[in-house]
Known about the structure:
eight-stranded parallel β-barrel; binds cytidine-5'-monophosphate; alpha/beta
Amino acid sequence: MAPLKPEERLIVALDFDTGRSALEMVDRLLDNVRIFKVGSELFTACGPKIVGEIQKRGCKVFLDLKFHDIPNTAAKSAAAAARLGVFMMNVHASGGEEMMKRCAEAVKVEAHKMGVSAPKLIAVTVLTSLDKKALKKIGVDVNIQAHVLALSHLAARAGLDGVVSSPMEIGPVRKKLGGGFLIVTPGVRPEWAASNDQKRFATPAEAVRKGATYVVVGRPITGVENPPVACQRIIEEIKGACGRS
Length: 245
Ligand code: C5P
């Protein structure tokens, strides 16, 4: 993969409940942002047409629907997402190796049929909202970092392109999985931004220096008065860190 430009490493989370407000934000950021994240709130509110509207404006879409189902259903869902021409999508690694493998195959088959490059398929390992106690309550009594690494390794073995990783686990995941594995990191806060409800966050520069391929940023951009300026500041910060990553 050719080295990414700093502006290609920023993904803006469109956490909106209407297509109109999401697209207003996309239009304001068109000069700065290449990739937007559509999550379950926006997708459930608007349906697949929101993906097409963003693509029509020349931008890529990371479809963050975190599929987790029996392998057949998850693979069919992944194929349907691939038919939307998204750039990136994700599944839960805890759906298991077979589910991930089937999804990876399904997106490649669909992309091949359409004559386009396959979407990047990444895995969610352990949700950052779950701490050790919460995991234990659902029967997962493990060391969180070891579990994240084991699931990341399983995702790579199943043919996935990368993982979603909190800032805390970027370093160990990068070390274990090597340079080509994609690491997509939310929970990113520039020093000048409010932390909101993110507890274990890193600045964009720290995330990139630790080895994140992409950083996902929502409210520090979408929740401020001048989103384009916030974007430019973050891209500058990424640029400054790139040389030293
Ligand atoms: O507004 P903020 O920058 O906190 O948005 C972060 C985005 O990344 C949201 O869409 C959120 O759902 C997502 N995310 C996260 N933490 C995770 C996984 C996803 O904040 N562990």
